[in-house]
Structure formats: structure tokens, C-alpha cells
Amino acid sequence: MDSCAKTPETPSNLIFSQVVFIDIPHSYPPAAPLTCCYTVTAAFQPSNKDWVGIFRVRQQVLRPLCGADLLSGERSNHLPLQVGWSKTRDYHTFVWVDSSQDGTGHQSEIRQAVFNDYYLPKDEIEFYQFCYVDGAGQVRGASTPFCFRKSAEQNTESSPDDNLLVVTTQEQLEQNTREKDTLQKELTHLVEENETLKKVLEKEGEESASLKRQNEQKEKENSQLVEELGQIKKENENLKSTSEQQMKEMERLKELLRETAAEQEEHRASLTTALKEQEEQAQMKIKQLRAQQAELKARLEAQSQEMDTLNFKFKNEERELFQMKDCVQLLKSDFQISEEEKEGLSAELQRLQSLACNMDDMMRKSQELCSRLSQQESCQNENLKARCQALAAQLTDAQAKLAAAKEQSKNAERSAEQLKEELEEVKEKLADVVSSHEKAQQKSGKQEAELREACVAITDNAALIEEKERLIAILSNEKRELAQQNQDLISDVEELHRICAELQAAPPAGTTEDPADQHHRETSEQSEGLCAVGGPVVEFVMCRHCQESFSFITQVELEQHEQSHRICPFCQMVCDDMDQSVFEDHVYSHEL
């Protein structure tokens, strides 16, 4: 009892007092629609996401509540001290708050929540209470407990006989007196707590006034939102009126989608056949071009080897030519030296010849002197003989020098003749080397021309290969565009399914479906619509080429993924990371 009396001072109970349920009877008749009335304080702003639920009250909470009502002599219309449940999802049924009641802007007006008799409890033993829950899941108000009983039982309990005579004993009277005193004390305590609550309510009133000033701008915005909500409701009604037409349109679109899918399948099959034929033709053409290219490469390699041989020979001959030129230069320098020596020897020979002539004159003169000396016998005979002997010795030396000079001149002439002959031979060899060099250059020019022709042929073959590859790329792009168009059609149909599902998922005002269950049902319906459009969805599939796993995709999407791979037709290897030229070389390596 004490714990129940102290609970109104907690913040949760202050929040519970923002919505007050009024005129709640002790019991309601079963199997009949139920209407509850409530008011909203100024500190709380209702929203269209709020709802009123019926919750079952636990017995341990029901006893202090009923005791307080009995003590006061009447049923209280204010907030109970405790609620009889632990979670807001423990409701028995609920209805959405009618947001159209907020249009007047008066917070103190009486609002109503109507429950359909189909969703009400059927038992007549348990007690229940109304609770107001906002969109965030917070409880903003709770009513006093009530039960569901028939009218006869209710009249029996609520209409006591005034003329009934009650007989009791003294002991029972004293016990009733003691209970009355106890209840009086509790009543006094409750009155004090009521005063405390009044002070708290006054403080809350001041805070609500400040909050009211703060919420004036929000109320203006809410009025605009209410107008927008009215427009949305009108649009919703229009959408509901046209939902049947949209369903018919959806059926027509489904049929059109089936026909389009069939046409696309036929077109895809024909396109695949054409692509295969073109790929086979392209592969045959590429094989021929590859064979021609290999032949040209072989010829080019042979010509390159021959060019290397000729270049080697040319370099050797050029080196020999340079050596010959060096030899010619050396011979020329030797010849010039020999000519200079020859000229020197010729000058020396002339000098010796002149000296020989002088010696002849001197010999003749000496003979004349000898003849004269032989005739003269004088004392100077010895001096003349000595002089004649000296002159004879000089003459002998001059004759020896003259003979040596003549011999040296003859040797120089012979050396000059040999040098001339060697120079002529070198000139002939040089002419031969120059002619062979010219022939090698002519042959090299012919081979270079043939090499250029081979390069042009290889370039033409490469251009043909590129043209085939471009044609294959164009066909692949057309195939991807068709797949994209198919995907766009599927997306359009999915969007129409989603709009139709949203229209069908709008709940009536009196339904008791949970918002979370409603959202789950909408998601399930949308998923079923997507499955109907895109084909059967497989929970777990794997690509047979890259072994990559996918969840919840259709067979068409899996086939599109598998067709996007670049697969070798011989070894079935995935070649997505290879360039086109490397991929072709890999394919041709199997053919070789």
C-alpha cells in the first residue's frame, strides 16, 4: 500500500498523466462495440502514429487500485498508481488515434476511441485498462481497471437493495470499525499525497505554459501539416478509386512482360546463334590471318637473319676497307719519304758526279804533273810524290763514295718501283671492296623493301583482326543493351507492383493489426511481387565459372552474370583479367 502511494512522484507517472481517460465504467458488456473517452493535456501534442490499446491488469496491481476506489466511495477518473503490464507490446488489441480530431486545436476537448466487438476479450474474469501510447512507444496515459460482464451481473452488483436489513455481531462491528480507522488513516495519507500531487500539477502547469509558448510555432507547423494530411487523404482516396484500374493495368503489363520476355528469349537465341556463327567465321578468318602472319614472321625472321649476316659481312669488309685505307696512307707516307730520299740521293749523285769530273780533271792534271815531274829532277820530287799520293787516296775515296751512292740510288729506285706496285694492288683491292660494298647496299635495300612490304602485310592483317574484334564488340554491346532494356522493363514492373502493394496495404481505421506486422506483411507482398516479375528467386546459387556465391537472385540474373565472363572455348579457363590480344594468343596456343 505504501509503495503504491509513493509512485505518483516518479517521472514515469508524470508522463502517464498527459492523457486522462474519463467516464470509465466498472464493466462493459461483452460482444458489443466499445467506446472510450479521453482528454489530452497542453503538455502533449498528439500525432497520427499514436494508438490506444487494451491491456490486461495483473491481480497484484488490481488489489491496491480497487482498494483505493472502495476507500474513496466512488471510481476515480484519474491516473492509476501503476499499470498492470511490463511492455507496450503486451496489448490485447489497439486502434489508431483519429488525427482528424486535432483540427480544432483545443487540447481539453473530449476525444474518442472505438473498438470493434470482434477484437475485444471474451473472458469475464480478468480486468483490463486503456493505455495511450505515442509513436515512440512511450505510455502517455492509463485508465482505471474494468472488466467485461453481462448486463444482469452488472445490475446485480451495482444495484444494492436499499431495504435490506444487515445483521452482524459485535466482533464484526469492532473489526469493521478498526478497518474503517485504518482506511481513514490511509485516506488521510492519500489526501496529503493528493495535496503533494496538486503542487506537482501546479508546477507542471507552469512548465506546460512555458512549453505551450514554445509549441506555438510547432502548432502553426502542425496546422500546415494537417492541411497537407487532408490533401494526402484526398489523394489516397483517389488512389484507392484507381487501384482497380491499376490492377488491370498490372495484369496487362504482366502479360506484356511475358510476351516481351518470350520475344527477348527468341531474339537472344537468334542473336546467340548469329554471334556463334560470326565468332566461328571470325575464328576461321583469324586462323588464316594467323597462319599468314606466322608465314610472314618466318620470312621476316629469315630475312632478318640474312640481313644480320650481310651486316656482319659489310662490317668486316668496311673494317678491311679502313685497314686498306690505313695501309694506303702508310704506303703514301713511305712513298713520299722515298721520293724525298730519292731527291736527296739524286742531289748527292749529281754532287758526286761533279766531284768525279773534278777528280778526272785532277787525275789528268796529276798525270801531266807526273810526266812533268818525271822529266824534272829537282829537289822537290819527294813533296810532289806525297802530294800525288794524297790526291790518289782522295780520288779512291771519292770513287768508293760514288759507287756507294750509285748503289743506294739503284736501291731507292727499286723500292719506289715496289711501292708503286703495292699501291696499284691496294687501289685494285679498294675498288673491289667498294664495288662489293655497293652490291651489299643494293641487296640490303632490296631486303629492306621486302621487309617494309612484309610489315605492311602484317599491318593489314592486324587491321582485319581489329575489324573482326570491333564487330564482335558491337554485337556484345547490342547484347548488353538488350539485357539492360529487359532489366529496365523488370524495374518498371517492380515499381508498379510496389505502388499497388502500398495501395493494398493501407489499413482501415478499426483494424487491430500491429504496425510491425503490417510492415512485415507489406514487405512480404512486395517480395512476392518481385519474384513473380523476375522469375523464381533462389536462396543460394554459385557461378559455375568464378565460383562466386549469390543470395536471392533469379536464374536470369545468374545467366547474365555467367555470360559476362571471358571463357576459353578449349580449356574453359576464366580470362577476365587478360587483354584481348593476350586472350587470342591463349586460344591460338591450343590450336598449335
UniProtKB/TrEMBL annotation:
<keyword id="KW-0175">Coiled coil</keyword>
<dbReference type="InterPro" id="IPR041611">
    <property type="entry name" value="SKICH"/>
</dbReference>
<feature type="region of interest" description="Disordered">
    <location>
        <begin position="198"/>
        <end position="224"/>
    </location>
</feature>
<protein>
    <recommendedName>
        <fullName>SKICH domain-containing protein</fullName>
    </recommendedName>
</protein>
<feature type="domain" description="SKICH">
    <location>
        <begin position="82"/>
        <end position="148"/>
    </location>
</feature>
<dbReference type="InterPro" id="IPR051002">
    <property type="entry name" value="UBA_autophagy_assoc_protein"/>
</dbReference>
<feature type="coiled-coil region">
    <location>
        <begin position="381"/>
        <end position="506"/>
    </location>
</feature>
<feature type="domain" description="SKICH">
    <location>
        <begin position="19"/>
        <end position="59"/>
    </location>
</feature>
<feature type="region of interest" description="Disordered">
    <location>
        <begin position="507"/>
        <end position="528"/>
    </location>
</feature>
<dbReference type="Pfam" id="PF17751">
    <property type="entry name" value="SKICH"/>
</dbReference>
<feature type="compositionally biased region" description="Basic and acidic residues">
    <location>
        <begin position="209"/>
        <end position="222"/>
    </location>
</feature>
